[in-house]
Amino acid sequence: MLNLLEKSFTVLMLLYLSSGLTGFLAGDSPFNVWRLEDNPLLLAIQAVMYGITLGFVVLHWRKFISALRASGWVVALALLAVASTLWSSDPAFTLRRSLVVVATTMFGIYFGSRYQLPRQLRLLAWTFILLAVLSAACALWLPQYGIDKQLHRGDWQGILGQKNLLGKAMVVGMTVLWSVQGVLPRVLRMAGLFLCAALMLMSGSRAAPVVLAALLLLAAGYRILRARMNTLVPLVILLLTTGAGAAFFTFRYRALLLSSLGREVTLTGRTKIWTAVWGAISSHMVLGHGFAGFWAGLHGESAPVSAMLGFVARHAHNGFLDLWLELGIAGLAVFAVGYLQALGNGLRMLRMSPHRLALWPLQYLAFMLIYDLAEGPILRQNNLYWALYVAVVVSAAQAVRVGRQSRRASPAYARLQRGIREQQPDHLPRRSPGRVGDLHPEAGRGVA
Prior knowledge:
By secondary structure, the chain is mainly α. Helix content is 67%, strand content 0%. It has one domain (2-414, 436-444). Helix 5 (72-83) runs antiparallel to helix 6 and helix 14 (270-283) crosses helix 16 (319-352). Mean pLDDT is 81; it is low at 27-34, 423-437 and 440-448.
């Protein structure tokens, strides 16, 4: 019974972090955009959700403590956000939000360590299916909330309150549902994929289909990374050459490509925002302005940026610039090291397991990188995508560690070591691929 309640709460927490369950409660006043902490109901919900999370962390404290080693860089980034209270222009606000970031990071570590990858993806699949169903119902039966009536008239926004947020969520949902082949019933999986695709198109988000296409191409290309080294090296060189050519072509003809997508060269004003925030970045280059300490509308240090742009910006529309603004080069470096480490673990995981589930860490890391180039921010409190990043970091690191332990315990590894000791390289047996934790699709069955 407790196990079922825990899984149900995990899905509820994931929905909460998507902001889908609380968007209507925040109100639509400009004040609430910046200071959601002043909404007593939201504060109460937040306290309850993280209080229950803490209870489950205590219940599984051994797994949680073990996972802390695998999540060192993300924990360091969250702690840097807390430390930025010391130099923030709004210390009290930074402290409150950074503590919630620590709580969000705690949930990500719990989720990544409590459940093996098949079970994680099954819970995520249910989360995004529920998110899609609720968003469709909101657009159809509560169109005053579910369909944009102002800036992007007619575009669906579902329960997320903004069309790009809906498109982004549906891209992740389709990636999850693609990854859970053999874990969910086929009919449910295909119905979920169809609904997510329909909502993505109805949202009118231009970025979502482009990101989805990129992820599909990457999914096909990841098979190359499972090749033997003598085949892998020339293929990687070929891919890098092709990628460089494609990047040059895209840059050279960017105006034509963007116009074909219905976009301006300024990316709907994003490049203007990037230019405007550079001055603010250069004035606090090393440590930034403090976590959540810059964007305050027409007040504080963001006022000159808003005046230059002629409208109130909520963020830089680039996750890396936002991180640089708030935590400086220090924060950007900590994130980059952690991201590259997670990428390396994802590649090892891919080569150690033949299952489609092993693609999930690389797919999510690629999604995060692509989306953060034109969206943002990366590090945010009560944010589903930051929590999933933390869970991916933990899962990939732990899976690689288990895979190495399994390989070392295998007879093939023992023969390999014996061959090395005997210095007979011409007769070394083929290395066993090992395994990555319990990635067999059957491992995810039986999950509510």
